Amino acid sequence: MSEAAQTLEGWYALHDFRSMDWTAWRLAEESERKHALDELHAFLAQWGGVEQQKQGSTAVYSIVGQKADFVFMHLRETLEELNEIEVAFNKTTFASYTYPSYSYVSIVELSNYMGASGGDPMENPEVVARLKPELPKWRHICFYPMNKRRSGNDNWYMLDMEERRAMMRSHGMIGRKYAGKVKQIITGSVGFDNWEWGVTLFANDALQFKKLVYEMRFDEVSARFGDFGDFYVGNLLDGEKVDELLKL
Ligand code: 76R
């Protein structure tokens, strides 16, 4: 058996994609819409408070294209908290004007391919900051799930550690070229959801998503071993943008 990579886990993640029921929203009374919007703002404020207390982090983005209208990406200490957020939102008046389009459950993950620095990693503030990150409020988000292939000669899980480490190093070097332009959060989802990882990217210039993902396609670890799900791309929704999106 090949040696499994060691992983460190941080906050649990829920990517909660929703679509608007625009017909119902349009037919609603003005007062009902106002109540629904107030509820939504109360949630945004509550999630902001959790972030300030460093008990989690939430990012809200609109989604371009027909796959969804917006996404709430939540990071929290436990799966229970993620479930509570989801259920509390579902009970709101606002939620009755939305329907679920997609969701993804995973956990922030770091692996040891690039080598450990020694000592207890959970005592290292840099490691902890990566495992429990404040989600950047950059202009754009890109999310997609992925697997490492298991077929014939292209079976990632049959390769020995050294081979995988060398490929991951090359992967990391490409990624580093995008430092400051793209922030990536890798979340592991083996045992939690239908794919093995969620990839969440943030950028102020959306074009950098295309540049980065394209360049990686030529790198062996993506070229030979990457299988990808649907891509979701969108724009930051802050409080004012929420009102703009929902205004009729
Ligand atoms: O954690 C690190 O920074 C060390 C290097 C590193 C690891 C171990 C790293 C760097 N990644 C790692 C692991 Mn990554 N990453 C992806 C995708 O579209 C594609 O082709 C693949 C999707 C992108 C865009 C990306 C970006 N990475 C992983 C893993 C887990 C693998 C495993 O355990 O087998 C996956 C699935 C994955 C996928 N990666 C980086 C980036 C970027 C931008 C970096 C540089 C980060 C930095 O140095 O700041």
TrEMBL record:
InterPro entries: CHDC, ChdC/CLD, Dimeric_a/b-barrel. The keyword Iron applies. It comes from the Bacteria. Keywords: Heme, Heme biosynthesis, Iron, Metal-binding, Oxidoreductase. It is an enzyme of class 1 (oxidoreductase). It catalyses: Fe-coproporphyrin III + H2O2 + H(+) = harderoheme III + CO2 + 2 H2O; Fe-coproporphyrin III + 2 H2O2 + 2 H(+) = heme b + 2 CO2 + 4 H2O; harderoheme III + H2O2 + H(+) = heme b + CO2 + 2 H2O. Pfam families: Chlor_dismutase (PF06778). One of its GO terms (molecular function) is oxidoreductase activity. The active site is at 144. The keyword Oxidoreductase applies. Fe-coproporphyrin III binds at residues 130, 144-148, 171, 184, 222. Fe-coproporphyrin III acts as both substrate and redox cofactor. Pathway: Porphyrin-containing compound metabolism; protoheme biosynthesis. Its EC number is 1.3.98.5. Its cofactor is Fe-coproporphyrin III. Transmembrane segments: none annotated. Gene3D superfamilies: Apc35880, domain 1. PANTHER family: COPROHEME DECARBOXYLASE (PTHR36843:SF1), HEME-DEPENDENT PEROXIDASE YWFI-RELATED (PTHR36843). Belongs to the ChdC family. Type 1 subfamily. Involved in coproporphyrin-dependent heme b biosynthesis. Catalyzes the decarboxylation of Fe-coproporphyrin III (coproheme) to heme b (protoheme IX), the last step of the pathway. The reaction occurs in a stepwise manner with a three-propionate intermediate. This is Coproheme decarboxylase.
